[in-house]
Amino acid sequence: SVWPPLFNLNLSQEVEETIQIPNNGSAPLLVAVQVFVSNVFNVDILRYTVSSVLLLQMSWLDPRLAWNTSVHPRRAITLPLDSLWTPRLTILEALWVDWRDLSPQARVDQDGHVKLNLALTTETNCNFDLLHFPRDQSHCSLSFYAFSNTVMELEFQAHAMNEIVSVKREYVVHNLSTEVPPQQLVPCFQLTLSLKNTALKSIIALLVPAEALLLADVCGGLLPIQATERIAYKVTLLLGYLVFHSSLVQALPSSSSCNPLLIYFFTILLLLLFLSTMETVLMAGLLARATLGANRSPSTALRGEQRDRKNPGPIPEEAPRGIQGSKRSWPETVDHIFFLVYVAGVACSQFIFAGVWMWAACKSDPAPGEAAPHGRQPSL
Length: 380
Ligand SMILES: *[C@@H]1O[C@H](CO)[C@@H](O)[C@H](O)[C@H]1NC(C)=O
Ligand SMILES: *[C@@H]1O[C@H](CO)[C@@H](O)[C@H](O)[C@H]1NC(C)=O
Description:
single chain; seven-stranded mixed beta sheet; 36% helix; rod-shaped; Methane Monooxygenase Hydroxylase, Chain G, domain 1; Acetylcholine Binding Protein, Chain: A; alpha+beta
């Protein structure tokens, strides 16, 4: 026949039979899955990925594997995976999956209960919600699909367990949940990791220097406008802030919607610093011109006097203003008013930002799969 002579027909049929899914009549076979999350070791917000270490503990009943203990006194045996049926899982969001044990074995009890432990490391894609970065919270899903079976044959019952003991992380998993999405054609279950950013580092490294720079800039307004150090001071602050700003922008990811509010905050800060530097340069320039004009006017008056000695006209009575005496020149007055408005504006901007931070919610654009004319929600 077609069978190789070394194989006996009965054995082949037996092997083929045990690698088929156990039949549970008209109901699907129930596979209980416990997901132990033992580590979430890398959360990369720039690449939108999460790396995690998981242990899957699956158990189901395969009555064909049961044996009579009075004939074979063993309580349990271990079998290689190619000699029995096991669910084959694919993680939909995974960029890569590293199954730690390359030839795992299943443990079978004498009554046919099969237990299979699979340890894996995986990097999965996650749509972080970074609107409130660095106090952001996101939900990352890992969808496990058994593509070789249908929902008529197989059904998962999943539970998750948080076994993370490492606390030296920026992002912590504060909640874990599992669900079986309804109305699927392929059996699946979904694990959701709720991640919370506990980054004190970002607050210290981003907010504190930015606020300090803004405060230093406001204080710079107290230097008299005649002092040339004021321009140097403001320009130095602006340059320092520009360096800080460019490194900050590189440290934050970009997205089509729900960009971090912090980016807007730091851009407004940049505009404020720019405005105050511009004002200093402008007013210093106007003051220098006014002083120059005031210094020049007595001599021109004198020359005019000498020229028009014969018919003496009204001698201009303008006194050089602002340089001596308590009276301010107009650029100084404008500078003083600007300083008051600027302080009020800076304070206002901080309060407005705090309000936006409290009330803003991320309204993301519809995903391409939902919005496009031919798009639809994936349903497997
Ligand atoms: C077979 O299906 C029934 C009904 O859904 C369920 O209670 C039972 O546990 C299933 N048996 C196996 C071996 O999965
Ligand atoms: C197990 O084997 C013994 C001895 O052959 C037999 O008496 C008994 O009925 C068997 N039990 C079952 C459940 O088949």
